[in-house]
Amino acid sequence: MWVYRRILKISWRDRVTNIEVLNRLKKKSELINTIKRRKLSYFGHVMRNDKYRMLQLVIQGKIAGKRSVGRRRHSWLKNLREWFGCSTTSLFRAAASKVKIALMLSNLR
After folding, report:
1. Rounded distance, CA 45 to CA 74, Å?
2. Rounded distance, CA 68 to CA 57, Å?
3. Long-range contacts of 42-50 (CB under 8 A, 24+ apart)
């Protein structure tokens, strides 16, 4: 945002919201794309390495126990399934290959 304000020559003393700055530049907030990119790359990293065995079990949902009362929490897999429009098995297959993860990440941009 600081760079955008410099481009538009907006002083730090001016009361211009970040949303207004983005509107003036006709840009969207890139935060959600950054989150999607980091989450998918971390998912691939964890699923490819055997030293993260416990974390793999947690992501796959294979931990025994009862859920707490209330609305179900969004899981990592549910977010990734919604964002990339694919099934859980296809996500696990893609995580095994760095190339497939890279292709999914390139389609985000």
Report:
1. 21
2. 19
3. 43/76, 43/80, 43/91, 43/95, 44/94, 44/95, 44/98, 44/101, 47/92, 47/95, 47/96, 48/95, 48/96, 48/98
Q: Is the pTM of this model over 0.85?
A: no
Q: What pLDDT score was predicted for residue 15?
A: 93
* Residue 101 CB burial class (10 angstroms; 0-12, 13-18, ≥19): buried
Nearest Cα neighbor of 106 from 21, 33, 5 is: 33
Give 38-96 pLDDT, tens digit per residue. 999 998 898 888 888 888 888 777 777 777 788 877 788 888 889 889 888 888 888 88
Give φ, ψ of 26 to 5 degrees. Answer: 55, 45
pLDDT at 109: 65
Using alpha carbons only, give the angle 101, 96, 72 rounded to the nearest 5 degrees. Answer: 80
